Amino acid sequence: METREYDAIVIGGGPGGYTAAIRLAQLGKQVLCVEKESLGGVCLNWGCIPSKALITAAGLMDRIREAGTMGITAEPAIDFAATQRWKAGIVERLTTNVGTLIRGNGGSVALGTARLVDARTVDVTASDGSVARCTARDAIVLATGARLAAVPGFEPDHAHVVTAREAVDLPAIPRSLLVIGGGVIGLELGMMYQRLGTRLTVVEMTDALLPGVDADLVRVVERRLRKRGAEILTRAKAVGWEARGGMAAVTVEQDGAARVIEAEKVLVAVGFVPNTAGLGLAEVGVRLDARGHIAVDERAETSVPGIYAIGDVSGGPYLAHKAFREGEVAAEVIAGRHARRDWLAMPAAVFTDPEIATVGIGEAEAKRRGIDVTVGRFPFTASGRAMSLTETEGFIKIVADRERVIGVQIVGPEASELISEAAFALEMMASPEDVALTIHPHPTLGEGVMEAFKHALGEAVHIMNRPRPKQPALATA
Length: 477
Prior knowledge:
There is one protein chain. The protein is an alpha/beta fold. It is 31% helix and 26% strand. It has 14 helices and 22 strands. It has helices at residues 15-26, 41-45, 48-65, 80-104, 164-167, 184-195, 215-227, 281-284, 320-334, 363-368, 384-388, 415-427, 432-436, 447-456; strands at residues 2-11, 31-35, 108-111, 113-118, 121-125, 131-142, 146-148, 161-163, 176-180, 199-203, 231-233, 236-244, 247-254, 257-263, 265-268, 272-274, 307-309, 348-350, 355-360, 374-379, 395-400, 405-412. Strands 1, 2, 3, 4, 5, 6 and 17 form a seven-stranded mixed β-sheet that branches. Strands 8-15-9-10-11 form a five-stranded parallel β-sheet. It has a five-stranded antiparallel β-sheet with strand order 18-19-22-21-20, with helices on both faces. Helix 6 links the parallel strand 9 (176-180) and strand 10 (199-203). Helix 1 (15-26) runs parallel beside helix 4 and helix 3 packs antiparallel against helix 4 (80-104). It is globular and about 70 Å long. The termini are far apart.
């Protein structure tokens, strides 16, 4: 058996893994990154990047249709095959660049399936069955990510039932789509196809769409869904399906009654589960937590000294930018630097229509925790820039305690971009005054963030402030 020696081995070439490999190489470590499919992982190949490309194309179609309010008339048409080629080109450029960056910084890449032999040894099996034994002098980093969760009875058949992986590669826009799961993936992809003309049905087991997201944000998105004709079934469960005349006839149970809904495609989008099987974790002694993730400490180190875990496999939230940061932390710890998983702010964005973005905790959660908070709010209907973009649905809401900002929630245009300022404010432990006194350019969407903070202080200029308690009249002589 061929044996190769390195300072560090990274198993997994997704956002966390390739970041760790690049950073380790930058820090002077001889590093090997092992990837079993394609560099870039879920995010670059069929998750974050391709889905956002398609969402952008669908959004542009919408804007062209709605341009009549500006006096511009056009009837857009889409060549979806060309759109798919454009999207594939973006994916190819980015995934190729990952390999270039790893190698360009002095690291190595191996395609194959990795399994731990011991705390410093990994066997890598290539597609032709050959095995290379690789040893790591310093550390092994586990960055194997997560896979799509399955729904019994709805295994993908690539004709009627698909997962997110197939949904971003459909050769044609389906006439109708039933989405099982009203979470982030289901709504992002479902709304994208809805904007392209697909009739949409969403089946969600819980009481509301986007479980875990503040209800006042979700209401804005749900209103848009219904306005476009979507049928939303909450507290409902898809229990089976059969092919019927070229369609999938799906049996859905809701409130004790069953009905059959026909759709050209069924998208199963019920979340992810960590990729821990087949790694040899138990044999080496790597401990898992109660939910099946690899347990790690603040240094991203597992229960076995010298073995680290980052990204989705080490627990939620399942976010590429969390994996990026954890990859950097692990690399710097391995190189002897001081680094910790000690962030205060972890923003999240949902690319629905309109977008949702959050950081910190919301008003409802703060109240559940017994925190006395001040809330500021700025609606996009009061934003001149939002009006000029014809995107006035939604608002910016900030939540602060007596001393600092503890949460910001945005639903509306460019929410995913606006949330970065809020994340910075939380990370720097800023007070509402800090943001309110920061001059923002006009006219922009970003000044709405400033206005929301001013509103929390009772000093907003472009919207009405909450009435202040009446002060007692001054005594007169």
